[in-house]
Structures are given as structure tokens and as C-alpha cells.
Amino acid sequence: MPYWYFDKKDIRNSPSFREGIDYETEQRYRREGARFIIDCGTKMDLGYNTMATGVVFFHRFYMYHSFKTFPRYVTASCCLFLAGKVEETPKKCKDVIKTARMLVDDKKFKTFGDDPREEVMTLERILLQTIKFDLQVDHPYSFLLKYAKSLKGDKTKLEKMLQMAWTFVNDSLCTTLCLQWEPEIIAVALMYLAGKLSKFEVVDWIGRNSKHLRWWEMFVEDMTMDLLEDICHQVLDLYSQSQQQASQQDSPPQTQPEPSTKPPPQSHLPPSKLKPDLVAPPHSAIPTLGAQYPQRVAPPPSGHYPNPYPAHPVPIPNIHPVHAVVPPGSQYYGHHRPPPAAGRPYYPPQ
Amino acid sequence: MYEYSADTIQSLNLDSLDLGDKKYDELCQIGCGAYGTVFKARDLQNKGNYVAMKKLRVKLNEDGIPMSTLREISILKQLDTFEHPNIVRFFDVIHQNILSDERYLTVYLIFEHVDQDLGSYMEKCPPPGLSASKVKELTRQMLKGVDFLHSHRIIHRDLKPQNLLITRAGGLKIADFGLAKTFDYDMMLTSVVVTLWYRAPEILLNLGYGTPVDIWSIGCVMAEMWRLVPLFCASTEVEQLKCIFRVIGTPSMNEWPENISLMWSSFEQYSKVAFSAIFMDCCSKANSLLESMLTFNPADRISAADALEHPYFKEKENEPL
């Protein structure tokens, strides 16, 4: 079975790099592809899990193929199309293409060829072969909710931290972090970052024991500060890149609302430091700690083959009270999820 | 600046793509049924070990590969991460004719190859048949495997000696599960006769079904291990039901399900035969387990988890029968 985590040097030495695309350009292509998937998904009212799954497919795909062979917007559309089916939120191929058409300029849309639908359908088979039918992907979101539930402290502050961490996870999709680390690890690091920036110091948590110095030791063992910092920096680097890029003519503007027309970010990042809405989080993706939203109750477990067209939007995860939790992952097939396999390594082999 | 490829994906040369080398060398066909064709093959990248290749023709719909197929293959992959000892290992999935625009996609699922199934194992078994401890051990392993599947909400639907594999070490592994939805497409196209012998009454009566259907099949297989002949064998649904009622007794009118086309009155009234009379050399605990598995009403049938707690399995192996 394939192993989906890579060393940084493997990520640098990618098929695109071997075909002459430099590292920075590839990173930009990855960012643009990921962002396109999120924008497209948001327009189509898809849930955060579907979008994140599409993005992970996208990053994995380009570990085996080059951006020269496969134009990124076609691949991105295909990844979102497949993720829709996998996460039980299917969209018609022609609708994905219609949305894509609205988001990219004529020149880019030319890469879809004369028959865009057939192009995406053909790519679906290549994509499936490349990602080896490894369709079930976990995301940091569900871990953020799990961690937040165990932390003690001021509820408002905790909620702020969680929202900020959620935004960081959204934005982290534009990095190659999902190719480097398991979602549990990314969730710890970005929760830690959010705690720092929102000035919420976690001093106590449910299940704390004398051996624990830090809250995440309950969930992830042997997590070094170096690793933590490295992950945070990879996300923070995005914000400086996005500023640089704004001044670069090389990157054609995306057909998106200007930052000024965007709704104010839901997260509470210090505006002087960061541009949190590099990836504008869909509103439904922001978790809440209670009162603001009407309480949603977890949908009853569906039958063996649930209705493939569930009602939209995806329920808002609500982290209080415990019984109302809709862990994002539980939507998957309506099945109980197995716990992570025992002995699963937290670190990629050196 | 923008390095778009001039070609579209459809015009790509397949050979130029790194879609993996030839990895399996097909040897011979080892099975063919409603559930697809199975080949024995060599895994070229793994010391030439034998693998079982199951060939699937997936019908593409207007939105590509059906969700149900994606789901089922994905679940197979997920289940395999548990490496359950009583479930056949699933190694790989590959597919062909990627670039052709046919209406079918050929998918090969690569499974662990096991030489022998329970059917041939029983055939080869010299008189006086399987020992009591062997029957118990194999039944336990069947139940463990099925309990695992059920806990992941997978119903096998077609348990029978032919898809219960017996390893050289004497372990039992369940094969051929989890693709029910995918095969439903193909089933309509094939006219392969599917055996009814292990089918639960609710399937024969065309009622909805759930996990209890697998328990019924295990009961039939367990009985067959004792007797070395199938317990209920008929070639039509109605005959199969009659066969069943001759042993467990025709259900009373109250027990007969509502809203079904088959009338209760169309069946002869058989009274229940004491299991101890059929399985004479079988201990009373084994008979009691069999009875709770071969129960007409699926709601009253024992679950796999409960069956594993049955006194039959508590008793020491070498105790006299």
C-alpha cells in the first residue's frame, strides 16, 4: 500500500521539478490549485471536508505527475469532482466545469480542451490510478474539535482560538503539509499557533496527568518544538508569499472579489501581522462553541447505502454539548470510522 | 511563464505516463461466477508470490465511476488496514483502458491467494469427517470474521464454503465481500446461477435483509461441516424454503411476514425436527448454537458477537461430546 507522507527533499524533487519547473513556481501552482478547489467548492456549496479531500488528492497527484503534463485547473476540477463523490456530496461533472469556467480566465480555460467534460472524466481514471483508490482522507478539522473539547479555560477565548486554528487549517491546504504530516500533527501545531496568537495559554485540560507538560502530549507523543515551529512557519510563510505575489505581474489575478469586498474575516487574527483570509473560510466551516447557531443534532446513522444526495449544507459542527457533535469525519459513508491503526508511525521514515 | 501543455489529456500517449510498471503476471483462471472472474497471478514486484486477481467490469455512468464502486473499493482498503486474521488480505487495485472512452472500466482487485477453500477442504476430508474441535475452531473463525465485517456495517450476503478460504496453517479467511453494490450492475447482465443453499429465508422471500443473513449462512456451513453434505439444497426459492421448513418447521401464521407475495398457505405444515436428531454426534451446546443461528425470524437470530459468547465456545476442546 502506498505511503502518502514524504520528506521535504522528496517534495522538492517532484516530477514537475524534474521537468524543469522550479520549486517556487511549483509551490505557487499548488497554492493556486488548492485555492481554486476551495473557491470552486465554496461556490458549489460543498462542505469543508469535501474541499479538503479534493485538495489532498491534488497534492498527492502532483507527487507522481508534472504540472507540465497535467494543467492544474483541470486536475483541480477533477479532484473536486472526485472528492464530491467520495464524501457523499456529489456534483455533476458539468456543474463543476460550469463553476470552473466562472473562476478562470479564457486562457486557462483553454487547458480544458474542446470537450471539458470528457477531459475531466478521463482524468478521473488517471487520478484514481495515481492515488491508488486511497479515497478516505482524514483532515485536521476533526482533530481540532476533539482537542478543543478537552481544553479547559475561558470559553470565549477558547472559541476564538479554535476559530483561528480552523482558518489556519483552511490555509494550510495551500501548503504541502498534508504530504508531510498526519492530520493529527498538523492540528496540534496549528492549534498551538492559534493559542499563541490569540494569547490563550492552555494550562489545564481534561485527562491531564502528572506526566503531561503540554496538552497535546495526551494526543500525540514525542512532538518536538522544532517540528511544531516548522509546521507553523510553513503556514505563516503563506501570508508573506501572498503579499509578495500581489506585486508580481507573473500571477494573473484570480476572478475573485478583492479583499476589500470580502466579508470581514471570522477569525480574529491580529490584522497587522497576518492576512488570514488568504483562503476565505466558508462560513459554514467555522465551528462554534455553542449559542450562536441553532443546535444541530447528529444525523441518524444511515443505512448501508445512504442516500447519495444528502441535503445541503453540511451540518455545522457544534462542539457543545458532547452529544450534538458532528465530527466531520462521521459523514463519511455514514459508517463508523475505525480508529487509526495501532502502531501507525507519527513520523515519516527518515 | 505559463507552461501549459499543448495537448489535452485525451490525446496523451499512455506510454509516456508513469502509471506503474506491469506488476502482475496472469497465470490462470481460478474462478468465475456472478461475482466476477478471478485469476491466479504472480506478483512480479514481490518475489513472484501468488496473488488472486479479481477482474471487475465497472459500468461508467454519465458521471464517471459510480459512487458505490468508489465507496466499496475504498472500504475494502480501509478494512485491510486492520489485517484481521479471518479476512482475506487486499493488496492493490489497478485498472485498465484508462484513456479509452469505453462505457466500462476494467478494474483488477489484487487479493491474497489462498490455495484451498472450505468446499474442497471438506471434499478431501477423509471419513469420519472433521473432528468436533476442528468444526468448532472453524465456526469460531467464521464468526470472528463476520463479526468484524458487521461491526463495519458490511453484510457479506453470499457466505458459502467456496468463499471461505482455508490457509495452510488451518486458518479460515473470508473472501468475496464488500462489492455487492458494484456487482449489482453486472448481475443483471450475467446469467450465472447463484447457489441458494446458504440463503436466509428473508432473502428467499425477497424481504429486506441485514446482518442476520450472514449468520444464517454460517449456520448452514457449520451444519455442513458436521455432515459433509449441504443442509438445505434446492434449486428454486420455493423449494429451498420448503427444504428449510422441513427442518426448522413451517413458521406459524403469526410468524409469517406481512406484505409478501408468497402465501403462508402455499407451504405445507412441517413440524420442527429436533436438531439432536439430525446432528446426532453433535454435542448439545453445538445444537443449541445451530438452532439459534437457523432461526426463521432474523430479529430473533443470534448475532455474531453473541454467538462468540455462546457456551459452545466456552467448553474445553478435549471434553467428551
TrEMBL record, chain A:
- Superkingdom of origin organism: Eukaryota
Q: Which GO terms describe its molecular function?
A: cyclin-dependent protein serine/threonine kinase regulator activity
Please provide, in alphabetical order, the Gene Ontology terms of the cellular component aspect for this entry.
nucleus
Identify the residues that the record assigns to the Cyclin C-terminal domain, covering every copy. 138-265
Bias (Low complexity) occurs at: 242-253
The residues covered by the Cyclin-like domain are 35-129, 142-229
Q: What is this protein called?
A: Cyclin-K
Give the originating organism.
Diaphorina citri (Asian citrus psyllid)
Task: Point out the gene that encodes the protein.
Answer: LOC103520507
UniProtKB/TrEMBL annotation, chain B:
Transmembrane portions of the chain = none
Q: Which UniProt keywords apply?
A: ATP-binding, Kinase, Nucleotide-binding, Serine/threonine-protein kinase, Transferase
Keyword Magnesium appears in the UniProt entry: no
Binding, ATP = 54
- Any one GO molecular function term: cyclin-dependent protein serine/threonine kinase activity
GO CC terms on record? cyclin-dependent protein kinase holoenzyme complex; cytoplasm; nucleus
> Which family does the record claim for this protein?
Belongs to the protein kinase superfamily. CMGC Ser/Thr protein kinase family. CDC2/CDKX subfamily.
Indicate what this protein is called per its UniProt record. Answer: cyclin-dependent kinase
UniProt organism field: Diaphorina citri (Asian citrus psyllid)
Q: Which gene encodes it?
A: LOC103504933
